[in-house]
Amino acid sequence: MSELLSKRQAPNQDGRYQHITPESAGWKYVGFDAFQVPQGQTLAFSAKSDEELCIVLVGGKANAILVEQALGEIGDRAGPFERKKPFSLYVTAGDSASLTATTDLELAVCRAPGKGTFPSRLIAPEHVDAEARGVGNNQRYVHNILPDNKEADSLLVVEVYTDEGCTSSYPSHKHDRNAPPEETQLEETYYHRLNPSQGFCIQRVYTDERDLDECMAVYDGDVVKVPRGYHPVATMAGYNSYYLNVMAGPVRKWLFSWEADHAWINSSEYAEKHAN
Question: This protein's superkingdom (predicted)?
């Protein structure tokens, strides 16, 4: 099995079934946890003095407390495939948050270096931009939870929906060079969900030189780590895909390069071919 693929594990006593740290991933910036929290259980999270968190309610509802301020019940979708915009909490360095599940709750906890530059805040659905991208068999729908035009020190967080039989994160692109304004170096995790849940999708991670070239069958609840290289996703007939991306690096800007062989998928030629 590829070292880039983190399989969904049996949950621990806190309901955590994914746990990725910079140390376990062999990189510097991105950490990621996923939790399944039963109704009535409370989880507390604290950002260290040198990190920030983005806690995404992937599904379910919870009573939230952020920096000792009660926010009431948040959450507006039973699961990600309702395609409603999510509720999230941004937790700045040194601050804390807690959530008490008022329904069964699926949480994603995204971590990266932080300096406390920006205050903790609720990211409500009205703060999340949405956009459709691509044409033909390369269509996807995006919720920009914490993009590079919103306040954070390091974290970039986005969720992507891809229908059966389509590709996404495609044409193949990469962001592994610290060379702005052409490209930024960003580590990335992909937290995958499939609907129906027994399905799988395919993700490839590879470089121009092919010194890294991994192709993985990814199942519901798995995480793919992208330390460098291109990283397209392809769905299978009968199964829709959701993934939550977490990115961070030395510069908080999403600048990327297309793989030259496949960049023509962005062209008017391809769009006209699929106009009808």
Answer: Bacteria
